[in-house]
Specification:
Rossmann fold, alpha/beta, 41% helix, 7-stranded mixed β-sheet, 177 residues, single chain, binds S-adenosylmethionine
């Protein structure tokens, strides 16, 4: 009797874990971009080689997943880091992982629709080409409206019609004026 109850509880826990993982990794597939986190060490190196961050920098990670890039941005010198994430489960996870750091904020929403912070200086994107295609005009409009340069780092995919300034492995740096 006792063993049967325990086995039932274990099966329920396993099923809940599978459901959670399926939602976290699967929901955004519907929108065309799965969750794959950036590699911590490589991202750290990419910041150093492509755009050394300073206290004046405000980095926005477009599609922040669990927030690993935000954490690395702060550790590597950025003043603030903001993550925008479409998948509410990932947005909650990113918030839980980073809520103790006052310099990190998470917004749940579509990266092309949410209001961007007034002081963004660096944009980070690890997303599919079709996501990047939609983001490009948003960044160009932002740079024009705010009258300043925006540094853009992309991972794995290049921006169509934009010449990168530097690259490091699969990371590219762009300057939008
Ligand atoms: C490849 S993951 C990268 C996660 C994180 N930037 C990193 O490098 O560790 C892409 C993320 O973008 C999110 N995403 C896809 N389309 C989005 C959109 N339109 N607005 C906001 N987030 C989006 C996905 O949910 C996913 O978490």
């Amino acid at each position: 009797m006792y063993n049967g109850l325990m086995a039932g509880i274990i099966w329920i826990i396993v099923a809940l874990i599978i459901l959670f993982v399926a939602i976290v990794f699967g929901v955004t597939m519907l929108f065309g971009a799965a969750f794959v986190p950036s590699h911590r060490l490589q991202t750290r190196q990419a910041f150093k080689k492509l755009k050394p961050l300073t206290k004046k920098d405000v980095l926005v990670d477009f599609g922040c997943g669990n927030g690993v890039v935000l954490e690395e941005a702060i550790k590597n010198g950025a003043g603030r880091a903001i993550g925008i994430e479409l998948n509410p489960f990932l947005a909650i996870l990113a918030h839980v992982m980073n809520h103790k750091n006052e310099r990190i904020k998470i917004k749940c929403g579509n990266m092309t629709k949410v209001k961007l912070p007034e002081d963004m200086t660096v944009a980070y994107i690890f997303g599919l080409k079709k996501v990047m295609k939609k983001l490009k005009p948003v960044l160009e409009r932002y740079a024009k409206e705010h009258g300043r340069t925006i540094w853009v780092i992309s991972l794995a995919f290049k921006f169509n019609g934009m010449k990168s300034i530097k690259s490091y492995g699969s990371y590219w740096l762009y300057k939008i004026e």
